[in-house]
Write a structure and sequence with these properties.
380 residues, alpha/beta, Rossmann fold, 3 domains, binds guanosine-5'-triphosphate, binds magnesium ion, SRP54_GTPase_dom, protein transport, nucleotide-binding
Length: 380
């Protein structure tokens, strides 16, 4: 038994000190008013003298109880899913269970706060501080912030126990849609200047005419650029396939009509600035005449990320259905493939991997493209 006297100005003050020093099990044995000792004692204000006591054993039990409870909470926090506070509250007495549950709830709150802080740090503008390994890997593949955010949040909501790397592959693969359909009777290639439209048409024509022995016809409406017609005519002559140059919208229908016995007619167009709505509208007038739903937007994978959205949106009025990504041989990181596909929200039909006609063109599966995007494979 511990017995102690406390001098205080009020009972409240005395109880606070007793609880602090002896614990909540302490009991008050007596109280009386006294004057302070000393020369001025007789004239001084009266104060309270409170005597309190606590059973040694009970106090020790209290301490042990506290240690036990904390241990339980910590163990429960480490072993159990923190969100199921119920599980750890299944043993012990009612009071103990309630405390454990209450403390679990506090722990959950704290963990959630920490998660929030971590998320904020991951989005912090201060370099790499707080970025996960996964985020750094995605950034090193040149994926843009929007795509990285989408990937990370898809991984975050996956509840299985697989490694992040495996989840990452699945998420990226699901984001890449591939169009494996054969080219339609009429296929049109559109896109900005110099991305490789004419070269890609020549490659497709070569593949279909020479390797698959299909009847192919070539049409160009690119009468704008000097040498454009000759560029395609040369290929048509070498492959011995029909070739037509269309100057007016009226000629368009006749040209395709004349080639109706071909399995596939490939139409090459003038490279246009996606910001110039007039030029795109002009192009649309030609394309509308051929009534096809096989329009491919050609973009180079070396296109600056900031320009991708402008191109994808600028060409939207042509209602393209597929994306062809060119010049994969000119880069070492392939995040732009996913950036382009996510921006356009259309499936990819072909990729081109060099200047050689007709070899450097392929269809790639979403699995193969995922490997490129994640830096697990390279082109050439
Ligand atoms: N490295 C590389 N170069 C390519 C590829 N495809 C095309 N090129 C080159 O890109 C340049 C432009 O190709 P074109 O086919 O003329 O491009 P275009 O889109 O028709 O250009 P415009 O008609 O002017 O709009 C040429 O030098 C091609 O050889 C490719 O996959 N890889
Ligand atoms: Mg061209």
């Amino acid at each position: 038994m511990i017995i102690k006297k406390y001098k205080a100005n009020s009972m409240n003050e005395a109880i606070t000190r007793i609880k602090y020093e002896l614990g909540s099990e302490a009991v008050i044995i007596s109280q009386r008013k006294i004057r302070k000792k000393g020369i001025l004692g007789f004239f001084s204000k009266k104060i309270l003298e409170v005597t309190a006591a606590v059973d040694n054993k009970k106090r020790e039990d209290n301490v042990n109880y506290g240690i036990r409870t904390i241990k339980k909470i910590v163990n429960a926090g480490m072993k159990d899913d923190l969100s199921s506070g119920e599980k750890s509250a299944g043993t012990g007495n009612f009071y103990e269970n309630n405390i454990t549950r209450k403390n679990n709830e506090e722990l959950i709150k704290e963990v959630q706060q920490m998660k929030g802080m971590l998320n904020k740090m991951m989005n912090s503008p201060y370099g790499n501080i707080g970025k996960s390994e996964l985020q750094l890997k995605l950034e090193s593949s040149d994926l843009n912030d929007k795509v990285i955010k989408k990937i990370l949040s898809s991984i975050n909501i996956m509840e299985d126990d697989r490694k992040d790397e495996e989840k990452l592959k699945e998420v990226v693969q699901n984001m890449i849609k591939v169009d494996k359909k054969k080219l339609a009777h009429v296929a049109v290639l559109v896109g900005p200047t110099g991305v490789g439209k004419t070269t890609t048409i020549a490659k497709l024509a070569g593949r279909l005419a020479l390797m698959e022995k299909k009847k192919i016809g070539l049409i160009t409406i690119d009468t704008y650029r000097i040498g454009a017609v000759e560029q395609l005519r040369t290929y048509a002559d070498i492959m011995n396939i029909p070739f037509k140059v269309v100057f007016t919208i009226k000629d368009m229908e006749k040209a395709t009509e004349d080639m109706k016995n071909c399995d596939t007619i490939l139409i090459d167009t003038t490279g246009r600035n996606s910001k110039n709505k007039m030029q795109i509208s002009e192009l649309r007038a030609f394309i509308d005449k051929v009534k096809t739903d096989n329009i491919h937007l050609v973009i180079s994978c070396t296109t600056k990320d900031r320009d991708v959205d402008a191109i994808v949106n600028g060409y939207k009025q042509l209602n393209y259905n597929n994306i062809i990504i060119t010049k994969l041989d000119e880069t070492c990181t392939y995040g732009s493939i996913l950036n382009i596909l996510q921006s356009a929200k259309k499936p990819i039909s072909f990729v081109t991997t060099g200047q050689n006609v007709p070899e450097d063109i392929k269809t790639m599966s979403s699995e193969e493209l995922t490997k490129l995007v994640l830096g697990e494979d390279i082109v050439c």
